[in-house]
Amino acid sequence: MKKEPVIQFEHFGFKYDAQIEPTLYDINLSVYPGEKILIAGPSGSGKSTLAHCINGLIPFSYYGDATGSLRLNGKETRDMSLFEISKTVGTVLQDSDAQFVGLTVAEDIAFALENDCVPHSEMLERVAEAAATVGVPSVLSHAPHELSGGQKQRVSLAGVIINDVQVLLFDEPLANLDPSTGKTAIELIDDIHRQTNAAVIIIEHRIEDVLHRDVDRIVIVNDGRIVADLPPNEILCSDVLKNCGLREPLYITALKYAGVQITPDMLPQHIEDIVLNENAKALVSDWFENTPPAEQPAKGPVMFQAEHIRFSYANGHEAIRDVSFTVHRGEIMCIIGQNGAGKSTFSKLICGFETPQEGTMLLEGTDISPLSIKERAEHIGYVMQDPNQMISKTMIREEVGLALELDGLPREEIDRIVNDTLKVCGLYPFRNWPVSALSFGQKKRVTVASILSMNPEIVILDEPTAGQDFRHYTEIMEFLLELNRKGVTIIMITHDMHLMLEYAPRAVVFTDGKILCDDTPANILTNPELVKAASLKETSLFTLAVRCGLSDPRQFVQRFIDYDRRVREK
Amino acid sequence: MTNLFNYIPKDSPVHKLTGATKLAALLLLSFASMTTFDTRFLAGITILTFIMFGVSKIRFREVKALLWFTFVFMVLNNLLIYLFEPEQGVMLYGARHEICRLFGRYTLTQEQLFYHLNVILKYLCMIPLVILFVSTTNPSEFAASLNRIGVNYKICYAVSLALRYIPDIQREYHDISISLQARGVEMTKKEKLFKRLKNIVTILFPLIITSMARIETVSNAMELRSFGKNKKRTWYEARPFLPADIAVIVVSALLLVLSISLNFVNGGRFYNPFV
């Protein structure tokens, strides 16, 4: 298929006006009509900048100096207008919530047509058609906040394909979706790709999840350069993912641990199709037999107990139905489940942000219902998902010491606690910096520090690693693990199956306001019925174990996790 | 969370009118009831708006908050008028029929009571009109109708977007406020007023930062879908003018003409039954 490329970068470089160093260097990349490619790279690698160059936000909304050439259908983009580019390239942005501009689904889908002055009758027809293509015909008159995360994404997609674009660009389509919705999203992208035959570009660092359906090429960006541009089967055989701080599919890592040599002709792109000969199976089996199981940490004494909690919102929606739940001292655990299953509501009840209609909550055997929000926060701290929502001071020291200041502690006392907390959080070198100078991950630490300064026994974190690449994910999680070793009990609310597998010995699954299951993550993710009921996703490790004919696939998952921890700790 | 300005979707003839019609009628009728103090006219308009209210199927309890707000305002307004100018009616109508003497310079006269009746009638005809407009007009259609009467569509869209994001920002404010309360920032009445105001500023900081990020995303999303490309745009929610729309506008315009001509008939803004 030697057609003309739709997108062609040649020795392209870009430097933002506000920065000294260029963000992109010498990019050479061609995308042909009908291709499907995945662009992956760690945070700050330049992959988002690359995306902005493709959809025209660079140079038309973000200013800077571009060098080299970037052509869209043979035409230099800098000579085009943003509107002209958006006729060819349709973008589905990461945060489908924030980009919803219409008050109803139908209006949002029609937005591009409205701006193009398409007559009303034609508009109605095309909106109905696009809605049917992405599978949301029945919600046309709904408001955006009435939709689920997956539906919102479908609506965003409909608003883009309505223009018959040649290129569909997806900016981190899996962020904010629960595992099973994410899987459906990848299937949807694939279906749309087949139907429209547009070139599809997916920007994402969750490689294993994207590879659920075929892609033609994977382009790896690191430090502003393209370091690999190969078919997935070849990328997976190399070490380029690991070297760039990206996460390999877990089954690939497991095979590598077992000493299996992975070659492109094994078709390693999907766990279902990978060719495993008897030799490979034997290696995996041997590895399994020879890897000792890690010791399970002993449970501490009961610290927190919730009994028969019920809660309904003012609008009558029954969010929590008779939930009982125990937390042990020094534990690290996850709360998982679909959006709207009640995980966040339940955490808010624990923190006293909402009051349950029924049930009791005991901390160390004492009823905490009479305590105010502030009094409870001295025992149970809550870290929100978005650090920007929590930070209200401009300087790091002030932010971390805010609660102490308001408590009226003496100056020296505040300084001492703030310094100690900053040291624990690895922020001491930055103690006199303004918050705005920090990266996202560092801001997250500041918010954790501001909670820790109150010395709570339990810390609840909402999606502690959302939007983070593998390296930053590991940094944040190792930091939390370190805190846990110092005696802080940690509860995390998450959609991230890797996080729960790797860091939590225990997980509680919420569905429909109830606890469906309370077990080890390895047991949960290897139970097909549970996985289905709670909209989770089976781990590829389990599939690998089954395919290798191992006697105890569950144990295999557990041993892999324990082994992987030991390898990474070195 | 109570939302003061809330579109309440229903199936009624008032909902079926286009936004442009309702906006025009609102402007014409408000102007008509502003220009005159003719009691008969105001009473007529009041009856008319209450009938429209009935037709619209909007229930009073659905707009309770707004009604209470204006009721309190109306009572306050009347009290203040009486406190500062107990002889206002006498002055206006040029006659004095005393009913009883209260204290000091405060007496109750028929003229004063009649004047207050006029003030109350003004509230009674205007407020239901405004409430009717906001609760029966879909905000996007409102944007489309502003555009139709000649306002630049970018401004119209800004209005519609603001309406779209009000609930989101309310929710965010609530979340931020709770997380700060957990750190000891007191927002309840326990704290002194000045301190409380200072604490509210503490919430505004993160709220502004997150809103700025949101604005960036939204404006990118809009530009990527050709917003601002042409001088004009079409509207998905736009609806054609029906005979009912034309009838409403014509009746409203005639009422305005009537109101203006009453000024000449009465020889001033007031209808005077006393002389």
Verbal overview:
The complex is a heterodimer of chains A (570) and B (275). By secondary structure, chain A is of the alpha/beta class. Chain A is built from 23 helices and 20 strands. In chain A, the strands form 4 sheets. Chain A has a 6-stranded mixed beta sheet with strand order 6-7-8-3-9-10, sandwiched between helices. A 6-stranded mixed beta sheet of chain A has the order 16-17-18-13-19-20, with helices on both faces. The two termini of chain A are 47 Å apart. The mean pLDDT of chain A is 91. Chain B is mainly alpha-helical and 275 residues long. Chain B has 2 domains: 8-138 and 241-275, no CATH class; 139-236, no CATH class. Helices cover 68% and strands 4% of the residues of chain B. Chain B has a two-stranded antiparallel ribbon. Chain B is flat.
Entry summary:
The complex is a heterodimer of chains A (570) and B (275). Chain A is of the alpha/beta class and 570 residues long.
Number of helices of chain B: 10
The ordered string of helix (H) and strand (E) elements of chain B is HHHHHEEHHHHH
For the secondary structure, the number of strands of chain B is 2
Q: C-alpha Rg of chain A, in Å?
A: 25 Å
User: Sheet bearing the most strands of chain A, described?
Assistant: 6 strands, mixed
N→C terminal distance of chain A: 47 Å
Beta-strand percent range of chain A? 15-25%
Q: Find the biggest chain interface.
A: A-B, 63 and 50 residues
Q: Specify the helix fraction band of chain B.
A: 55-70%
Structural class of chain A: alpha/beta
**Tally of DSSP helical segments of chain A:** 23
Mean pLDDT of chain B: 85
Largest sheet of chain B: 2 strands, antiparallel
Q: Give the strand order, joined by hyphens, for the main sheet of chain A.
A: 6-7-8-3-9-10
Overall spatial form of chain B: flat
Assembly context of the chains: heterodimer
β content of chain B, as a range? Answer: under 5%
Q: Specify Rg of chain B, calculated over alpha carbons.
A: 24 Å
Cα-to-Cα separation, first versus last residue of chain B: 52 Å
Strand order of the largest sheet of chain B: 1-2
Please count the beta strands of chain A (DSSP E, at least 2 residues each): 20
